């Protein structure tokens, strides 16, 4: 061992070993970057084979040959082979990340071609997993360089925690911020928390203001403040003003980037001004018109500017009836307006009509997708489970809450059955059939519930037509109740040869389906009055009702008639 | 009665009476339009009070005063009052529909301001329902004139069938097509089927080709063919070529409207060409570059054109790495690309690279919303129930299928219980507790199932990481199984004072939660292999498994140990 002969070397070696052992690839790379290639070479020689390969994968591609020059031929051969094996053939050697990224720092759309020309997500995932398994982390870096940040985010989310950290470490410095933007909350927070503060600050500086605000909002307050402190005064003020809005409001969605002009200029002047800018912010389909106090006056569509002679004044093209959005407006309302009116961008104003910024369709698409995801995950009590590979312990704890709530309702149903122990003891067939009554009610009720929740969400169900819907649902409950009551009764008679039990189960099913219709309409209505999201808790309450009513009706009738 | 004195009058009166009685407002209006005001007046006098008011509400506003001139003062007063009462104060008298509609027949975005300045959806709905109840249909026409087609569609969907037909009849002729575009499938088809063919054809002619294709695809083939025949040859060929693509493919989403130019022209030439067009198709953020055979070459962004000097050639601005979409590509893939890359429009090409049209973000937003809606509704077996107020009979029939499928699984579970009748007869406490075991398994399983379905939908779950997820879910099942097994066991012991039952239920719950994790991962995987949508049928199969395993484990263990 040679590491004692030079004090200067000791610290990097220990720090590097520590970084490699703890999978802190980013730190390992930073340490390696600060060292002279000769030192890196001698350091590599002191490591055991596994660690050496791991360290090798953290060395910047541009320095590889310098380091190799200082190594023994045997090691040279081994490490060169390490770099070249594997991916070379599998990853198409088209655009590099740098080329693909918008060179002028604008739209991420520019890279649209990348992953369409490449492999399927499935193949990419397999590649990453293989690289992780064999410790060939360089292959991941190579793959990442060729992918769009959104795709990289998708790949990272497909990995379990430790593998994710390893792959994350291979991401190019300059692209970290962009990828963070595309990650789901839970994943983003966990990765950001594990990063060195310096790296996080670097990543944050690459983000657009609205994305930076999103990131800060999700980090622990201390970390968020530290990022804020690294910004210059103007940037900080800008971000702080955005931070003051609710995440789910227009203010939280808006981006300060936009082009605003005065109404008294000519189209030609506007075009000259635009040429000075060289490029426009993405999604610029309209320019905003403001007065001298920056108060919103109207819009001019870019396509109008393209199709009008330069002598025309902006006033002639201006549309003053295009309503701006208020900064406090909830994001769901805005999403619906974008959808209904096929919008690309809208201006955002404060209470006094001052132009604050704009909301663009790409962020609205994210809102729509998130809403949909939230309601689907929410129905299974998973609204906080955005990370498919969250640690077992964290997931278990979150899901336990939902199971616990459900247990209460299950015990309630069991309690109802318990009331009729004496009856069950005498007619055991009842115990066999009773889950059928409860289950049919639960299914019918959840159909009504789903319909009502959708109606409330789209605003199509209001106080004016609830009664009509209720009558319709009860009508359906009656028809289906009669149909399935007869079918179940017939089957029960065939099975147990007992007409009375058939009659009892028919009556219980009909009754339960009618109650299910009533509950399916009323539960979400009442929850909305109490300001509880019916999509989250509606189905638990509903099945409690249909279980209790189902068991009570069936066993109660049986007790009255059979005993 | 005077209606016999003039043969010429008899037919309109009968036809009108018939139309009013059958709520065919559109036909009533057409009949009234063809008549001289004096004839209309004498006709009104022959009708009884109710019918007279109903007929009055079908008279065009512009002819009201002419008709009034021929009426007795008493009737004049009555009918004038009828017109003025009610809405006047409630509906803000801002923009009329005509003003709000894009005068150049382009984007519907122009009317964005309308319903934002007006009442809330809830108030509008109440207004419509009141107007329907009091027979003051004119108020509905007044309200509709001030609303965006999307909002009108929303209101129509909030009405039960007969009221919907009445309100539909009050819609301005020229706007029918636009509103049809925004309606959900079921509602659209039913309203279109009820329309006179002439009106339907008129409405269809106002639609853009892609919307027209959507409409034709949803109508009965005969009706669709009749609409096609009314188009001229060029239009028909265009629509027919669009009809050849699958509704859920790029071809089905695309619109032929786009601007394509050759690469060898200068920016100044392009600008002059655009000025000739006067306006561009909505959502034109890029122009497509084609060769002389209309083969796709690349794109030029509109914002580049705006910021470049006129002498520049298109070649310098052209981006050749922007991948077009293939016409056969499924719409879900396209939606993901738009989302990931923040796109506004993409070109669509055929297999030989010929430019066919483009897909714009507004249609993609609809795809995303529909996908989300389909999966939420699908989970309750409601994937065909797009009309909240479909007739009771139609809804009952559709939902009965789902209830029937569920009944099969319920009988399967009952069958398992039936195996243990002898055991239940001896220990009735088992019957009380058994639903708890099944229910806990069902809830835990549906959590895993939801997570896996989402992972498959986003492409984050592939063959590479399924095993990892399975292990994680089994880990969670183990932890939560142990926790809730102990809790339930303790409660069972407290309730029945029997330690053996406590032990049995604990073991059954642990076992069922582990099976639930396994089933939650495997069921959607297998379904996908079999090309069944796991979002539709997954939960039925899953609860069958957890019910059967739950009952079998609990009652089976009890039989082994207690007897």
Task: Based on the model shown, name its key terms.
4 domains, CBS-domain, three-stranded mixed sheet, mainly alpha, homodimer, 563 residues, transmembrane (chains A, B), CBS domain (chains A, B)
Question: Main β-sheet of chain A: number of strands, strand sense, barrel status?
Answer: 3 strands, mixed
**What is the CATH T-level topology of the largest domain in chain A?**
Tetracycline Repressor, domain 2
Shape of chain A: flat
CATH superfamily of the largest domain in chain A: SLC41 divalent cation transporters, integral membrane domain
Pfam families (chains A, B): CBS (PF00571), MgtE (PF01769), MgtE_N (PF03448)
Membrane topology (chains A, B): Multi-pass membrane protein
Subunit structure (chains A, B): Homodimer.
Family (chains A, B): Belongs to the SLC41A transporter family.
Written account of the structure:
The structure is a homodimer of 563-residue chains. By secondary structure, chain A is mostly helical. Chain A folds into 4 domains: 13-71, no CATH class; 123-243, MgtE N-terminal domain-like (MgtE N-terminal fold, Alpha Horseshoe), CATH 1.25.60; 260-380, CBS-domain (Roll), CATH 3.10.580.10; 392-562, SLC41 divalent cation transporters, integral membrane domain (Tetracycline Repressor, domain 2, Orthogonal Bundle), CATH 1.10.357.20. The first copy, chain A, contains 31 helices and 6 strands. In chain A, strands 1-2-3 form a 3-stranded mixed β-sheet. The termini of chain A are far apart. In chain A, 50% of the residues are buried. At the A-B interface, helix 10, helix 12, helix 21, helix 22 and helix 24 of A face helix 10, helix 12, helix 21, helix 22 and helix 24 of B.
